[in-house]
């Protein structure tokens, strides 16, 4: 058994339990770290696989497992009808920011482009699917 030295009270409280964890923010946090690569893939004529966000999320899962927490990861990505206008507005803003980042990238201003791309990330179904597959390979429960 683990002694949980240095773990938070929350981790200690959930040790040796199956704990549901919403994953809405994890792929976004992971994608933030590889925003430039995701944008370059999206802009490419031959899109390539970027999976650094999966590595990021799985490190969090491994940390929980290390402390005896057995996560049950919740993928709740269904859009809420009441937020339809908000979604459209946010997507328009993201599209505008993505165009701005693309223009900066074409000007060779890579670092500035990366900062802009971080503000307009979209976690796609395919990205969530890759993360779910990684969870299944580790025997992590999904809901």
Primary descriptors:
mainly alpha; globular; single chain; about 140 residues
Summarize the structure.
With 143 residues, the protein is mainly α. The chain has helices at 9-14, 25-33, 35-43, 52-66, 84-106, 110-117, 125-137, and strands at 18-22, 70-74, 141-142.
Written description of the protein model:
By secondary structure, this protein is mainly α. Helices cover 58% and strands 8% of the residues. A three-stranded parallel β-sheet has the order 1-2-3, with helices on one face. Helix 2 crosses helix 4. The longest helix is centred in the middle third of the chain and has 23 residues, at 84-106. It is globular. The mean pLDDT is 82.
SSE map:
Blueprint: H1 9-14, E1 18-22, H2 25-33, H3 35-43, H4 52-66, E2 70-74, H5 84-106, H6 110-117, H7 125-137, E3 141-142
Parallel strand pairs: 1-2, 2-3
Helix pairs in contact: 2-4, 4-7, 5-6
């Amino acid at each position: 058994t683990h002694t949980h030295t240095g773990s938070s009270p929350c981790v200690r409280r959930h040790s040796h339990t199956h704990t549901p964890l919403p994953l809405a923010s994890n792929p976004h946090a992971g994608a933030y770290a590889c925003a430039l690569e995701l944008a370059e893939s999206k802009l490419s004529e031959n899109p390539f696989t970027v999976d650094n966000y999966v590595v990021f999320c799985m490190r969090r899962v491994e940390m929980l497992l290390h402390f005896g927490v057995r996560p049950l990861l919740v993928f709740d990505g269904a859009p809420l009808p009441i937020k339809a206008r908000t979604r459209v507005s946010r997507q328009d803003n993201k599209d505008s920011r993505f165009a701005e980042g693309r223009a900066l990238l074409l000007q060779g201003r890579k670092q500035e482009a990366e900062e802009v791309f971080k503000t307009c990330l979209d976690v796609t179904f395919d990205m969530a699917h890759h993360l779910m597959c990684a969870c299944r390979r580790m025997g992590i429960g999904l809901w």
